User: Fold this.
Amino acid sequence: MNWISNYVRPKINSLFSRREVPENLWTKCDECGTMLFHRELSDNLRVCTNCGHHMHLAPRDRFNALFDGGIFTEVKVPLPIEDPLKFRDQKKYPDRLRAAQKANDEAEAMLVAEGEIHKTPVVAAAQDFSFMAGSMGMYVGNAIIAAAERAVKLKRPLILFSAAGGARMQEGILSLMQMPRTTVAVEMLKEAGLPYIVVLTHPTTGGVTASYAMLGDVQIAEPNALICFAGPRVIEQTIRETLPEGFQRAEYLLDHGMLDRVTPRGQHRDELATILRMLMGLGPVVHGDLPRPVETTVPDPAPEAEALPTLDPGTASPATKT
Assistant:
């Protein structure tokens, strides 16, 4: 046994070697390739500080930035049948669900919550694209119905953040049935006279676009978000023509009248509060916790002075009656 080679040298190398850097400290932007420090990226709501590319943002993180003080209450969603079709491809459907739940630490692809945005009470729902591509299954349908019912009960507007690859194939026709179900839920809001605002994030495609994602009273999208039913590659292969640059992106749809505005993620909080308060007939947004103005009373004007006695012309004394 060589004591120097087997013990001394490894000990010295361990003392002077560079410590390994965790892989999750830096994130590479998919658009421009810039390496972004994780804290800086998180503080900027996962928007690239170099090119403005909007990366995936989990619903819980989105709600933490959206609601006042990051305070919100989750709305309970009824659980559907776990595997109604006994579907299996490379894995069983329940195994895929459990793997997605473990990876995302969420129950399903949509989170529903209630809280306040700039003192404006709202109900919000957000899809998680990282959970099986945000696919629309029975749980998502139940979540939107639960959100609409809660909004009607509390007389609050509903905000929905969409992000999905379409219907969930593991649930077959039951997944497609969520399109009319969610449409009825949106109609409940309209009958109650409550605003329904949709924020379309990247990507929003398939049956989601053909149902609740395009039924908002106001349609807002994040910059460069892909919004479509069939993707551009499928369309090009079908019609055998090259599509225009930026086709089916948020800016293209805004220019062609399918969206009301394209708003960066960092401005959603102020934008949504302003729009909601206008639609609800409330006063303008007050930024910050300002004290209520002190009511002041204006004093009554001073009484007119008594008229001075007139002087007799040619004398310096008041006129006297003779």
User: Anything to note?
Assistant: The longest helix spans residues 138-154. The chain has a mean pLDDT of 87.
